[in-house]
Amino acid sequence: MRSRLLIFALVFALLTLAFGLFIAENSAAQLNYDFALEEEYVDVYINKDGSVDIKYEFHFVNYGDLDGVDIGLPNKYYVLSTASAAVVVDDVSYTPSLIHKSPWIDVGVAVEFTSQIRNLIETPGQEFILIFSIRNERMVRENELVDGGVGIHMKPTWFDPSFQRGRTGYLRARVFFPPGFSDITQAVYLQNQPWDAIEFNSMAGLAVATWEAENVDIALQADGWYNFGAGLPSSYVDKYYSETIWDSAWNVLVSFGDFLCANICCIIPVLIVGILIAYQQWWGKRKKDYFKPKMTMIGAGPRRDLTAPEAAIVLERPLDMVATMILFGLEKKGVVEIMQVGLGFRIFRKKGAEPKHTYEKKFLEALDVQGQMNTQRLEAAMTHIIKQVEGKLVGFDYKATKKYYESICEKAWKQVQDAGTPNVMAKSLEEKNEWLMLDRDYDTRMNTFYIHHPLWINRNAASVKGGAPVNIQGLAQGYVGRVRTSSKSLVSNLEAFSAKITGSTNKATNYLGVAAKALASVETGKTGGFGGIGGGGGGCACACACACACAGGGR
Questions:
Q1: Axis-axis angle for helices 264-283, 511-524 (nearest 10)
Q2: How many C-beta atoms surround the C-beta of residue 477 within 10 A?
Q3: Whole-model pTM?
Q4: Which residues pair with 422 in a beta bridge?
Q5: What is the DSSP letter of 168?
Q6: Where are the beta strands (DSSP E) in 90-184?
Q7: Could you tell me how far CA 189 lies from the centroid of its own chain?
Q8: How far apart are CA 510 and CA 512, in angstroms?
Q9: Is pLDDT of 155 > 90?
Q10: Interval 298-336: pLDDT, tens
Q11: Most buried one in 42, 133, 325, 517, CB count within 10 A?
């Protein structure tokens, strides 16, 4: 009876979704959007009145229909009357037919093309340039972590990956500081997003910071990997803004209301999927993602000699986190060196120190000569440690072992929090971080060390001398950022990676879980959206493709 009800619910959800897609497809003209983005340039000029002037230049190669382009903006306070645009085809400039609020993305404008422009660009392989500019107010925000500091934070707009071919060839973002600011040693950048260059541009008469990237992944751009920002003393602007709790609450309510209005056809199936997933978690509680102890002996006591990565397996932490813990452990022992390369990194063996544990040796076998991970070998290494831990638990109480390492994690947090001085706390963080990473709320708990605001750090912060005070907020956030970056670099597709390992370590798979996960992936897809102060990006007005023609960054 239970299975029949679940199957009926799944079928109903799929039919509802299909009905919504049918309505959406018949409510708008069907166009075959198909283009490549060769280059994207964004210049942001900070004004003394707290606003910014934003200038975009997009170099497209068009292959299909294209009636306009949607451009995401940082916040709702853009001044539409200041917007201007031009389309350049074969060195001739043309004026678009209309610039208006975008019907497809939450916060942004649509540049609509004339029939003349469409006739020129709707030829496969036709190159053209779109130049766009607009003023956006309420962009300069207070930097609460630096006395007397202000700054801006942006995400370059992106386009729907189902419309855009491949990656963006080249992305350049620049921030021009306000007139009068020339001492670049006073400039600060957004944490984990250092600029590639900063200089005083004599032609513009302004200090300018530059970020560059090639072969840009659209999904990573939407996730904020290419965000940029700059800060400066507040004395160089006449006006800036502080975000209050009421601002945040109002933004949440407005966003939620927009979501409900734009997603009527998606809400019912999403709710059903949510119920199915919740039921799956309850019904299949005993079935783990990748770990299934072979044997447990109640009262035999916990296994107490596991390493942090092995304990992470017992606690069933995500596999990308386990891989990151192994990597950090090898780095701490001096076995490997991690070198930053763009937004990722390379891992190289160091001479001298040798790995102690078998799983560490397996991990190192996954490294190629270029310092990159071989995915199949990494899967083998993770499968090895899982099976190894299963074997180590034979004859021990599994539940007691879980509780033991949960308590070890809590003790580590307490030792860090009880540190008497910032320097002692910094040392404690370094020593205990591998055990802190056992916590499923690692990111959240680490973030309690600092105020929930974008963190600005001095461009020369890395050269602080040993006796200088330690910025615990920045240090804790640095750990979180490094863990996130490492996890994404090691395992780019966690779901696929985990699924392959699960197939060889725990074959007891619940069919409902697979069905619900598949439907959930269809529903949620990739959306735009933005998190943080004053950020930009082409967030879509819908959470799934059934509400509108775009899903991500628009046309």
A1: 150
A2: 22
A3: 0.48
A4: none
A5: E
A6: 92-94, 98-101, 108-112, 126-136, 141-143, 149-154, 168-176
A7: 18
A8: 5
A9: yes
A10: 556 889 999 999 999 999 888 888 988 999 899 889 999
A11: 325
What is the helix (H) or strand (E) element at residue 89, kind and residue range? strand 78-89
Collapse the DSSP code of 223 into the 3-class scheme (helix H, G, I; strand E, B; otherwise coil) and give the result: coil
Alpha carbons 174 and 230: distance in angstroms, whole number: 10
Per DSSP, the three-state class of 470 is coil
Do residues 151 and 140 touch, judged by C-beta distance below 8 A?
Answer: yes
- Mean pLDDT score, 65-84: 96
Q: What is d(CA 354, CA 337) in angstroms, rounded to the nearest whole number?
A: 13
Q: Phi and psi for 176 in degrees, rounded to 5?
A: -100, 120
Q: How far apart are CA 211 and CA 380, in angstroms?
A: 37
Give the Cα separation of 446 and 484 in Å (integer). 13
Neighbours of 311 (CB within 10 A): 25
Burial class (CB in 10 A: 0-12, 13-18, 19+), 150: buried
* Alpha-carbon gap, residue 186 to 27, rounded angstroms: 53
Whole-angstrom Cα distance, residue 532 to residue 192? 14
Interatomic CA distance for residues 381 and 363, integer angstroms: 5
Locus of tokens 């496969």: 124
For residue 154, give the nearest of 538, 529, 540, 537 by alpha carbon.
537
Tokens of 503: 């197939």
Terminal alpha carbon distance of the chain: 46
How many C-alpha atoms does 177 have within 13 Å on its Cβ side? 30
Structure token pair of residue 380: 């083998």
Rounded to the nearest 10°, the torsion over CA 276, 277, 282, 283 is: 60
Contact assessment for residue 347 and residue 338, using Cβ atoms and an 8 Å cutoff: yes
CA-CA distance, 363 to 478, in Å (whole number)? Answer: 25
Identity of residue 256: F
pLDDT tens, residue by residue, 196-225: 999 998 888 999 999 999 999 999 999 889
Separation of alpha carbons 303 and 297, rounded Å? 11
User: HSE-up of 500 (CA within 13 Å, CB side)?
Assistant: 14
